[in-house]
Amino acid sequence: MENQQKTGMPRIGDMAPDFEAVTTTGVLKFSEYNKDSWVILFSHPADFTPVCTTEMSGFAMEKNFFEEHNTKLMGLSIDSIHSHIAWVNAVDEKTGILFEFPIIADLDMKVARLYGMLQPGESETAAVRAVFIIDPLGKIRLIMYYPLNVGRNMEEIKRALLALQTSDEHKVAMPLNWQPGDKVIVGAPRTLQALAERKGDTSLEQIDWYLAKKAL
Questions:
Q1: How confident is the model at residue 122 (pLDDT cuts 50, 70, 90)?
Q2: 3-state SS class at 131
Q3: Residue 216 carries which DSSP code?
Q4: Which amino acids are annotated catalytic?
Q5: Which domains does the chain have, with CATH numbers?
Q6: At what angle do helices 81-95 and 50-61 cross, to 10 degrees?
């Protein structure tokens, strides 16, 4: 954690930095919001901007998916709470899409700095498009960064979340382009006896001794 404090860039495997912040649903303490559920914490550069509007709408439209997979959403930008409320209202009035998840009003950039969302080479005053997937124990499991001018891929965010949850449940790994329902990778044998047992296991698709897949 010492390195994290020096660089301001949390890493995969770190505990998510805790904070308390003003949001569109009230004042929230992150560790309490995160308790017993996964959280996707994501930042956007600014309210009332086109790419951000498409992204926030995308998250809002997947409300049922995230609820079904025990996952809460939390957005952030370096804007005031009044700007957030006005933007949420405007999008709702124009499109019928309501951003019900909390959006942090990070005017003092405290949370953006905690999570390495401010990257001076891109912008010193706007957060990049960061995505943090945090598990119910408060550990950062996946980080994605996108520049200001490239929107995120919602299907990849959903796929990554399901991959992490499936991996945790079944103690397996996921191959390239894995999708729910695809075969998963089982760990390589660590002893000669385990290797011999694997060679006789007809339930596995065995490409080589160290690479084997199975259906869940």
A1: confident
A2: strand
A3: -
A4: 52
A5: 2-152 (3.40.30.10), 171-216 (no CATH)
A6: 70
What are the tens digits of pLDDT across the range 198-207? 998 999 999 9
**Side-chain half-sphere of 144: how many Cα atoms within 13 Å?**
20
Write the CB contacts of 110 (distance below 8 Å, at least 6 apart in sequence): 19, 21
Tokens of 87: 């933007």
Please state the pTM of the whole predicted model.
0.91
Q: Are 165 and 38 in contact (CB under 8 A)?
A: yes
Q: Where are the beta strands (DSSP E) in 139-203?
A: 140-146, 184-186
CA distance 203 to 187: 14
Length of the chain: 216
Residues in Cβ contact with 138 at an 8 Å cutoff, skipping those fewer than 6 apart: 15, 16, 31, 34
H or E element, residue 23:
strand 20-23
